[in-house]
């Protein structure tokens, strides 16, 4: 027969504070007959009331019931934790890293810990899932687990440190890697070369926002502290090489590459050559670039994964060094799909500087055929090539194309175009370009006027040269040595002696007025003085005798001749 107890608990369990808050509650212990806990035993046909219980008996009954509930609850929690530990091991054995890490998180939330095998499985799954962000915390949990320390397997071991560091290396987590190394030092664990290699690998591709150099230095200090216990090899140096290039320690990176190559048991890979090529091109070491190219070209298939990037880097380096022939050969080795805009621009600019207009325009046309829209700097590079060869018509075509494409011309563009006019002796074209600049709202520079005056010199017109020189004053420009030498060259070329001498006197007057000689070196002033004296002698009658002493002071030469001015 089942017995069901129904009870009414007197508020004596609440205590005296309940009295006064609940209406009708009797005061004193004498009223327990009304507020006592009563129980009725119900049988099949009738019921027998149990005798009244006092408050103390009621409290004892409630306490016993609560304790039983807590024991039952504790047992259920233990069972849940044990089930989670079992699931962690099962998920680890089946390589289910997401599930394994979820179950570990749930276990820790309940305040539980796995055993040594469970921790090992969790760390192994961090490696599989490339989850380095939590490995330092997992190892810290292991170190703080007294039950694990007391077990036969002991606490944190080298294998756990290596698993944690490997996960950090795979997920580029150098901060966590350094924390793991610190914890290993704290626990007295002697780590090996593999541990330091993993820690350095974590720095190679870490986010730029992190202090990469500081983290790498911490790893290096630990390596130095280990001393002879750790024998460094090519793999470690190869990783350090890549880190040093990232933080722009290019000379140290090159030294590291040499150390890496000393390990006969290690074969450098393409990523190492890519890194050292970056360092060599950054410090503009052409000889090293050529040496590396020699090694790469001997076994091109070995460097297939980074071949295009290496060739592109070397080609740009040679172009920037004006070794345009080698630059073009390397350019041809770069796969078309990998050729960048910067590479095309470097080749065009290098060819232009070396006055190879044909090759410059050929590469320029090639980049346009690939769908690349040239920028103003690249157009300027082609213009420079045309200017160097005096190809006025081609330069004009480039300027027209720039206008068509909506590319705003600047003073540099016009100066290059002016130079092409000067090379061709097209003084009229140069003057027209200056007019175009004015109409476009572009203020000509001193270089602009000097170049136009060169065009006047090629045109043998001293009067045009001085006219352009005087036009600088309204523009707020002060002539310099280049302007004066160009103007004097125009006087030299002018077949009219009187015109040439008159123009020379105007040039000397302008020098005196602007005190331009103060900004020139002594040798330049002497050379201009001798040239001016020679030109003035073509017609001594045009000399400014009133200001002769001033002119002589400016030029540093005597302008007196055997003839006297009338």
Structure, briefly:
The chain is an all-alpha fold. Helices cover 65% and strands 2% of the residues. Strands 1-2-3 form a three-stranded antiparallel β-sheet, with no helix packed on it.
* DSSP summary: helix tally: 28
Shape: elongated
The fraction of residues assigned to DSSP E strands is: under 5%
Query: What's the main sheet like?
Result: 3 strands, antiparallel
Ranges where pLDDT stays below 50 over 5 or more residues in a row are: 1-48, 62-72, 562-566
Radius of gyration: 45 Å
Q: What is the number of strand segments?
A: 3
User: What is the rounded distance between the termini?
Assistant: 155 Å
Helical amount: 55-70%
How does the helix and strand content classify structurally? mainly alpha
| Overall pLDDT | 84
Strand order across the largest sheet: 1-2-3
Describe the structure.
By secondary structure, the protein is an all-alpha fold. Helix content is 65%, strand content 2%. It contains 28 helices and 3 strands. The protein has helices at 32-35, 55-93, 97-109, 116-128, 135-143, 146-150, 158-171, 174-187, 193-204, 212-226, 234-246, 250-261, 270-282, 286-298, 307-320, 324-333, 341-353, 357-369, 376-388, 392-404, 411-424, 427-439, 446-458, 462-470, 481-493, 497-514, 522-536, 548-555; strands at 5-8, 38-42, 47-49. Strands 1-2-3 form a 3-stranded antiparallel beta sheet, with no helix packed on it. Helix 5 (135-143) runs parallel beside helix 8, helix 17 packs parallel to helix 19 and helix 18 runs antiparallel to helix 19 (376-388). The radius of gyration is 45 Å and the shape is elongated. Mean pLDDT is 84; it is low at 1-48, 62-72 and 562-566.
